[in-house]
Design brief:
By secondary structure, this protein is an alpha+beta fold. It has nine helices and 13 strands.
Length: about 475
Amino acid sequence: MVAMVLATLILSGLTSLALAQNAADSQTRKELVHEAQALATTFEREAVTANGSDPAKALRTLLLALRAPLRLDGSAVVGLRPLTGTLFQPAAPRQAPALPAGLRAADLDPTALSQDETVSGRAGSVVFAAVPFSTEIQLGAVPRRVTLVIVLSRRAPSSLATAGPWFAVSALVILAVAGLVAYRLGRRFVAPVRAAQEVTSRIAAGDLDARVPAPPGTDPELAGLAESVNAMAANLAQAKGAERQFLQSVSHELRTPLTSIRGFAEAIEDGATADATAAAAVIASEARRLERLVGDLLGLATFEARRFTLHIQPVELSATLSAAASAFAPSAGELGVSLAVESRHPVWVAADPDRLAQVVANLVENALRFARSSVALSASAGPEGPRLAVSDDGPGIAPADLPHVFDRLFVARSVPQRNGSAPPGGSGLGLAIVAELVAAMGGAVRAESPTGPGGGTRMVVALRPAASLPPTPAGTARA
């Protein structure tokens, strides 16, 4: 901040000095022009050529007398040849003119002077004015009318000499104030930033309980920074805890079938089981359970990374529900659960038929795990668009858990039991896969527990209508 203030002062000071110097030069030129024009007018009107008087000589004598009162640094009276535009010494026409120190004949612009124009300007550190006038002078024995030029010069006033000391004093005062303000603001701004840096370092080292303090009166930007860092730490801590729970849940899901497989395999190996066929069937069933779990984990990772393709086309929703009901009818029968499709009219949606079948299958499988006696599948097309719903009469979902049932980490939460026993085995990732697939197809899914815990669950999927697809040219197929 001090450096910025210093640079601003230097820039503004140089600009001000340049403007002041330019104004001083302009004022000096005006004064010199006025004085030279007054002298030229006077001599042009009152010049006397009788008795061999020499106006140029008389004018030079007068200028010497006026040098101090007019604060002149130099003066001269020179002749001008209008035809050639050259200057000469009136008393010795063959000689070059004697000009004030620092001036050259070219600086006076003889061409402009020959056109009876006043010339003024600056040459180096000298400000000058040159005014031409016509008079008669004695050249030998014959008087002749010639053009004379009065040249006055004055050293350019230095604005730095007068304004420099005051500028230096004011600059020191401003820099002192800027230093104090910078110190105060630096402590005010840098301290919270250092605190945030320290906390983020602790978070990076694994201390997810570290938080950035935000005392009252903190600037909104710094308070926002502290809130962002604290929110990040809280989210990381929550994610780490959820990940730990997720890994524990998956470990449990893996360990349970592995235990059964190992136990029955050892029993067959030791001859401790009388029905080896039944034991082999259990091993095969648990192996399939492991396969489903690994498949769900790999599938979810693929969906989250968006490493899959969709072939969106018109799909009749009621037919998809009927096919799913037929596929799960044997499982529902073994559980003593009725599985019905409630759909009166065809409902066309824009979806990938295979992915939509996977969505319905996961929803039905989830409903069968918790249903007491019935699962219902329905399709409808209302003002808000096509919907499919899968309902069960199970124990329902707690209100606090409804927003999280499609979270892949939700498997770590405790779930209600059916008929006093744990629900049938599952990977616990089915609903997370449903959410990923539905979102990829441009739809939305939500969970409802109409009457709260104990009142059943309803999964509702909103899909795009088939009319939202662009028209297909004749002779082509959608892909």
